[in-house]
Amino acid sequence: SSDLVVGSHGHSSAGGRFIMGSVSLRVLYETSCSVRVARCVHEQSEHPVRIIVGFDGSKESEAAVNAVASRSWPDGTEVRVITAREALTPSEHNFLADKFRAAGVTPSEVNIDGDPADVLVKQANEWDSDAIFVGTRDLHGFRHLLQGSVSCAVAAHARCTVEVVRTARAAAARR
């Protein structure tokens, strides 16, 4: 399978953040394909579909952009590209704008300094996002302990649906 969808019970922690159950987290951590952690939002939204894409210029974040750009979305869908580093270069800006406009969605971008996972989750909450798309470098073992995993942290703490997109190279390396 090229994609896997898992549900999340949406349990709240003491701080009011949502956390994933152990099954969802294990599937996300151990599978070799892209994983969508689906969360049910009970309130009916009055805004168009809103999608956040985490982007850091890597091939993995380009895979998240491509995942969004390759799908059909309702008219009026908005995509906000979030970077937690320096602003996009002109070539990155043009690449993203062209991809998203070709997909029929309205792009915007925000640059905020900070921990990428925290920035993505906070922006998703403030913007009332329906989904977050992030790439993953699939760090494991000692490197994972040292650097952490942005994708796992976002999936664990976001209130909305999160899709962790794996590149074909990353998927092949995990098999």
Order of helices and strands: EEEHEEHEHEHEHHEH
Mean pLDDT over the residues: 79
Biggest sheet strand line-up: 1-4-9-8-5-6-7
Biggest pleated sheet: 7 strands, mixed
Task: Put the structure in a nutshell.
The chain has seven helices and nine strands; from the N terminus they run E-E-E-H-E-E-H-E-H-E-H-E-H-H-E-H.
Describe this structure in words.
By secondary structure, the protein is of the alpha/beta class. Helices cover about 40% and strands about 25% of the residues. The protein is built from seven helices and nine strands; from the N terminus they run βββαββαβαβαβααβα. The chain has helices at about 20-30, 60-70, 90-100, 115-125, 140-145, 150-155, 170-175; strands spanning about 5, 10, 20, 35-40, 50-55, 80-85, 105-110, 130-135, 160-165. A seven-stranded mixed β-sheet has the order 1-4-9-8-5-6-7, with helices on both faces. It has a two-stranded antiparallel ribbon with strand order 2-3. Helix 2 links the parallel strand 5 (about 50-55) and strand 6 (about 80-85). Helix 2 packs parallel to helix 3 (about 90-100). The longest helix has 13 residues, at about 90-100. It is globular and about 40 Å long. Mean pLDDT is about 80; it is low at about 10-20, about 140-145 and about 170-175.
Compile the SSE list and pairings:
Blueprint (H helix, E strand, L loop, with lengths): L2 E5 L3 E2 L5 E2 L2 H9 L3 E5 L11 E5 L4 H11 L8 E6 L6 H13 L3 E6 L4 H12 L3 E5 L5 H7 L2 H8 L3 E5 L2 H7 L1
Parallel strand pairs: 1-4, 5-6, 5-8, 6-7, 8-9
Antiparallel strand pairs: 2-3, 4-9
